[in-house]
Design goal:
Blueprint lengths: L2 H17 L6 H8 L3 H13 L3 E3 L6 E3 L2 H30 L2 E8 L2 E8 L14 E2 L5 H7 L4 H8 L15 H14 L2 E4 L6 E9 L5 E10 L8 H18 L18
Antiparallel strand pairs: 1-2, 3-4, 3-8, 4-5, 6-7, 7-8
Helix pairs in contact: 1-3, 2-3, 4-8
Length: about 260
């Protein structure tokens, strides 16, 4: 049996158990899904070994296992992260005219998962699912914020990185030095590094264990807000990121911020 067929059958079993009001035996599962009892048993054994189904010791019947709750919790947390961040970004968009973004890292690439546009005459757009460079955006740098120098090097390589503007850092050493400075300040910046004339400020968002689960940033055209101080923006972004992190379970007094520093996933 191919891996894809095995996965499909396993998912069908989980779907059947989810919709059932009672635990089911192997033969009943096999009958309803048109499987042989041997195949059904093999699928159930695999699911049980991972905690996705559980067998009653007395009746030998199966029901959904507690490991499924872990998947549900992950989806709930992701939805919560989106709603919390959207509220913070909407506030900054309406009060300060900033365009705001939420992103996650997938390997050596950043991915936008949320974009909130302000009423500014200049709109900086990024659609959910759109990729971003990590080296030239404040959001991308915030996603690298807690990685070790070695992890960043393993992730991005020595360069040269893509030059987006004349100010883009295209070498690894320059990026690492900028990340060190960002770490001392607590936030990241990109000043005309990704889009000419656009300034962005970013910060990481932490989960209950102190891991960087996402990052947020705001961006604005310098020409429209020439008197806006980056330090003032940074305080707004840091405050928002701290509130979101706290709501996601992060406690700075007990959690190890930035864990794991060598993560290159």
């Amino acid at each position: 049996m191919s891996n894809s067929l095995s996965l499909e059958k396993g998912l069908h079993i989980l779907g059947l158990l989810k919709s059932s009001n009672e635990a089911l035996g192997v033969r009943e599962i096999a009958r309803r899904l048109d499987l042989s009892p041997a195949v059904a048993q093999r699928m159930l054994n695999t699911l049980a070994s991972q905690g996705y189904v559980e067998q009653d010791a007395d009746t030998r019947r199966y029901q959904i296992g507690y490991a499924v709750l872990g998947l549900a919790q992950h989806v709930f947390q992701r939805g919560r992260l989106l709603s919390l961040t959207e509220a913070e970004l909407q506030t900054m968009a309406s009060e300060s005219g900033f365009n705001g973004f939420l992103g996650v890292r997938r390997g050596a690439t950043g991915v936008y998962v949320l974009g909130v546009q302000s009423d500014s005459p200049v709109v900086i757009r990024a659609q959910p699912g759109e990729v971003m460079p990590l080296h030239s955006t404040a959001l991308g740098k915030a996603l690298l914020f807690n990685l070790s120098d070695e992890a960043v090097a393993n992730l991005l390589g020595e360069g040269p990185f893509e030059s987006r503007t004349s100010r883009t850092l295209t070498n690894l050493q320059g990026l690492i030095e900028q990340l060190h400075l960002a770490h001392s300040l607590g936030y990241t910046t990109a000043i005309s590094e990704n889009i000419e004339g656009v300034i962005s400020v970013g910060a990481p968002i932490y989960d209950a264990g102190g891991g960087t689960i996402a990052a947020m940033s705001v961006a604005f055209p310098r020409a429209l807000q020439p008197k806006t101080k980056i330090t003032d923006i940074a305080q707004k972004v840091l405050g928002a990121a701290a509130r979101i992190s706290k709501a996601m379970g992060f406690d700075e007094t007990t959690s190890s911020k930035g864990r794991p520093e060598t993560d290159v996933a």
